Amino acid sequence: MILRAQGLKKVYGIGEARVCALDDVSLEVERGEFVAVVGTSGSGKSTLLHMLGGLDVPTSGCVEVDGQELGKMDGDGLAIFRRRNIGFVFQQYNLVPMLNVWENITLPVRLDGKKPQRSYAESIIQTLGLEAKLEYLPNALSGGQQQRVAIARALLPKPSVLLADEPTGNLDSRTSQDVLGLLKVTNRQFYQTIVMITHNEAIAQMADRILHLEDGRLVSW
Length: 221
What we know:
Blueprint: E1 3-12, E2 19-29, E3 34-38, H1 45-52, E4 60-65, E5 68-69, H2 75-85, E6 86-90, H3 101-111, H4 118-127, H5 143-155, E7 161-165, H6 173-189, E8 194-198, H7 201-204, E9 209-214, E10 217-220
Parallel strand pairs: 3-8, 3-9, 6-7, 7-8
Antiparallel strand pairs: 1-2, 1-4, 4-5, 9-10
Helix pairs in contact: 3-5, 5-6
């Protein structure tokens, strides 16, 4: 078991402004599994992903990644653990505009004071078709190419789990299918555990397992 959430609850506001974004959500993900969480806007998908990735703190409940409970870490410890063990792919790409493709891909590893494993980096770059783009700045790339760079950056530290938040939200349908296909390839080729949230049932069909979230609760497995 690489990822476990138990009794996650997240409440915002108080009194009449109180909103329960997550309500007693529990799930487990096996190593190497590709799981999609499907739900409409406001169902709690992004909140759940932020809890699983240690980007936000649950009101109650706990999250374990590779046997480590996130809630027991201090701020610095959690930041280091997250950088080494949790990869993120967002629909906004979040690339550093003044760094080229190679520098963006290797940034998390370099921030950790390490040198990227060249052979592994090259295998990711080849798989994602970025060999000819390594010297390009992000603004010279298409949306699909930028998302490929974001995926490569997330994969390079060999994270325990890759969390993808609507990774095709800013892409056209053809490019979306290409990016989803690449996620599936990385899942199989690198045995990468992936949890992806989406509002699109068709996109979710790419995953090994689909979970449905409604009004902050898992309604089917």
